[in-house]
Amino acid sequence: MVKKIIPIFPAANTFEAGGLLLIEPRNKIYVRAVTGWFAAWRWMLVWITQLVFYGLPWLQWNERQAVLFDLGTQRFFLFGLALYPQDLIYLAVLLMLAALLLFFVTAVAGRVWCGFACPQTVYTEMFLWVERHLEGSHHARKRLDASGWTAEKIARKGGKQAVWLLLSLWTGLTLVGYFTPIQTLWDAALVMGWGPWESFWIGFYGLATYVNAGYLREQMCKHACPYGRFQGAMMDRDTLIIGYDAARGETRGSRGRNADPKAMGLGDCIDCTLCVQVCPTGIDIRDGLQSNCIGCAACIDVCDSVMEQMQYPQGLIRYTTQNGLANGWDKPTLLKRVMRKRVLIYAALLLTGVLAFVASVALRSPFRFDVVRDRGVLARVVNDGAVENVYRLNVMNATEEAQRYRVAVLGPAGLALIKPLELALGPVEARTVPLGLQLPSASATALAGQTIAIQLEVTRIGPEDAPVRVLGKTTFHVPL
Known about the structure:
With 480 residues, the chain is α+β, with helices and mostly antiparallel strands.
């Protein structure tokens, strides 16, 4: 009888065991610079996203930071919207709408988000720009890495690292500036006066930016990011992808500019491999649709430039669909197929969610309140036989102006506040006050042993605004 065992193979530099590739060895990718229509769009989005990210914390609104999630005071500001922790549902809905928008874009155009606006792509482009300007082209970077350490190499490498570190530190400072006022952080930075949590998160996010954009780069897209793995659930054969027209390009081969490819039995692809050299993840788009393709369209730009030099029609590599490549469809046919059932469902859900969110924000009350019964004393009978219940009332002003509020109670006949209550709250202020309700002896006798549902009414009063009333439910207990 043959005994079955699990074979164990020694680790080797080839990363193979029994002919099976276990771990793909990483070869450093020296990405070639590319220019073109899509490259210009990518850089425009780099500028837009980073102007928003770095500039938004410095934008002022009503003499405060326009966007601030102040964890210390538990106040969250989105331009004219002031939120309390109880209002975080709005932020959760915004995140869900953003996810739904990503699903919609993916169903229509694949990984266009990854290729043009993803933070990993954006910061990799920025770090590569620094690298190219301080170390040279992709060939110069290869030679520099292969050469020995000289004063020039130390200066170039050191300068690059210094710029990377400064950019990473500024990125970490900006991120924390959305949670701690950015001006406070900047003033503290001048005297190294950051608190422990600010220091940790600035360092943590700065280090993450430095490592991800400076060193991991395509490894994040290929191995760490889950989006490249589950995108297949949102894509079909009518989703726009970057595709190589094999029917037109094959058989590939080099030739002179004036040569007749048909006479040579060749397609339009001259096998220059430039599409591989400009790819940030190092794939060959001519091998077909791959999960590692981030849709950056660098291969389209460089291939179109080669086709132009060879005086061939552009579009050998282009945005198309799998059905479009298989059937040779033109652009109008491709666009008609975009409006399919999956896309319409995503669009309807997204539009419904946006309208519901806007309506919810527009109809949001300018204040809110919570009422909690005093747990120490459920109910008590005072000297004249009246029944008294005690509550804690928390009123929150959701505007950035001082407001006044009047409190009343709606319930059985005779139920009233022990003493009239009016509150004056400052901008975005919350206050908790004790509140006593009393039911006369005559009414209490008829309701003995019951817990009665009642309502508190809080009314905003002011000389200019129309009164705004908010009702809240609670209970009143009458002992036996």
